[in-house]
Amino acid sequence: MRTPGWKAAVLLGALATGLAACVRENAPTETEIEADENAARAAEAVANPARSGEDRADDALRKPANVLAFMEVGPGDRVFEMEGGAGYYTELLSYMVGPDGAVIMQNPPSFDAFVKDIVTARVEGRLENVRISKSPFDKLEAEDASMDIVTWILGPHDLYYSPGGAYLGDDAGAFAEIMRILKPGGTFIVLDHVAAPGSPRSTGGVIHRIDPALIRQLAAEAGFVMTGESNVLRHGDDDYLANVFDPKVRRMTDRVLYKYKKPE
């Protein structure tokens, strides 16, 4: 029997090395595995049968599975939800953090006129890991460095809104408070309706939009570091001068979604 020559041996060795390299290259990275796990948890939360039909009807336009996956919320996390509103995301966050986690759902006291009964019905006797907090945006009810994640969904523009003359909080003070309550390395997620570039701050109180440059400015001044941005809710054909409650753009506005970190 003839033994393979040195050329054949080299060729076989190269093929084996190449095959091993292909296997390594095709193996998912740790980051990819974590992303898949985040997406799976988000999809599971959105599919929870305890959610109302009304909430589910909004899913197609609000894309909660994408947003939650971007947040990277994990089991056991402590989440401070600024301006939770009627609780659409509160319930989803409650499912995401699970029984070992906690969600503090914040709204300014003046929002009781809009959402008090809705929030009570959603939370009491249903979401045991959720605590309701009523405070201005610049006086958050949480201990220093106690939160893994702070979310502010469709809300920063309301820093310039005064329903019935109510004071909701100072803008720089609010971002400083977010920094205060986050743990080192903690995550700040912000999502809001886009106003035309250069729009004044008062736009937030009139048509409920904000220039994304202002969000980035306030975050940077507070010491946050941007680590991510998602385009999942961007709509370039939006009318940036329309009130977000105008039926022609409602739930279809151009929205920015940013991720920030508090430095270690």
UniProtKB/TrEMBL annotation:
Biological process, per Gene Ontology: methylation
PROSITE patterns cross-referenced by the UniProt entry: PROKAR_LIPOPROTEIN
Keywords: Methyltransferase, Signal, Transferase
Protein name: Methyltransferase
Keyword Translocase: no
Presence of the UniProt keyword Ribosomal protein in the record: no
Signal sequence extent: 1-23
Domain of life from the UniProt record: Bacteria
MF GO annotations: S-adenosylmethionine-dependent methyltransferase activity
Methyltransferase type domain residues: 121-190
The organism's taxonomic lineage, starting at the top: Bacteria, Pseudomonadati, Pseudomonadota, Alphaproteobacteria, Parvularculales
